[in-house]
Specification:
Layout (H helix, E strand, L loop, with lengths): L1 E9 L4 H14 L3 E4 L3 E2 L6 E9 L13 E6 L2 H6 L4 E10 L12 H9 L3 E5 L1 H7 L6 H13 L3 H12 L4 H17 L2
Parallel strand pairs: 1-5, 5-6, 6-7
Antiparallel strand pairs: 1-4, 2-4, 3-4
Helix pairs in contact: 1-6, 4-5, 5-7, 6-7
């Protein structure tokens, strides 16, 4: 088993929380994991990217080369396209459909949608609206993780258990909101 994942988005959108949950699930399964440092501005509004590699065999590098990513999980549609050269030919993009317009020359959304439509395996989901509609506005990132579950090759219950461990110290309400968000994402990608 080997899965190379690129996580990307904008600072403050919860990229590190997604990485923590995936990492916790992988470690609990006795898998090897390597994560590159977050690249970009981790402050709210700056672009953020991280490499996360999971394998049943030892991993020698924490970086993912061009054409090697199995999954791109993106909290922002333009950011998904930025890392497209890293996606392998059978790889998956799971991205939010909601743009985070933080630059004056942000591309037209119709162009972004057309470019995403060219990808063989892509899930584009309005996580922001789903989060609001379901009363979990701070868990949009976990909705995206739920939508990515099958592409990641990690069993759903393993991600759910990881959420319980990662957020347990924050209280039952936070755990419940994130478990609900994971289920919303899983259902939305069907």
């Amino acid at each position: 088993m080997k899965t190379d994942i690129i996580l990307c988005g904008v600072g403050g959108q919860g990229i590190l929380s997604i990485a923590t949950i995936i990492g916790e699930a992988a470690l609990n399964e006795n898998l090897y994991i390597k994560q590159a440092e977050v690249h970009g501005m981790s402050q709210r509004g700056g672009d953020v990217q991280s490499n996360l590699r999971i394998s049943s065999d030892p991993i020698h590098s924490d970086l993912i080369g061009k054409g090697q990513a199995d999954v791109i999980i993106s909290m922002e549609p333009m950011e998904a396209l930025r890392y497209l050269p890293f996606l392998n030919e059978n790889g998956w993009i799971i991205t939010s459909s909601t743009p985070f317009v933080n630059i004056p020359n942000y591309p037209d959304m119709e162009v972004i949608k057309a470019d995403l439509a060219k990808v063989k395996n892509v899930i584009v989901i309005d996580i922001e609206q789903l989060a609001k509609d379901n009363g979990v506005p701070r868990s949009a990132n976990v909705i995206l993780l739920g939508a990515a579950q099958k592409a990641l090759g990690i069993e759903y219950d393993k991600l759910e258990a990881a959420i319980r461990r990662v957020f347990g110290r924050k209280g039952e309400a936070i755990v419940d909101a994130n478990i609900k968000a994971l289920a919303i994402g899983r259902e939305a990608q069907k």
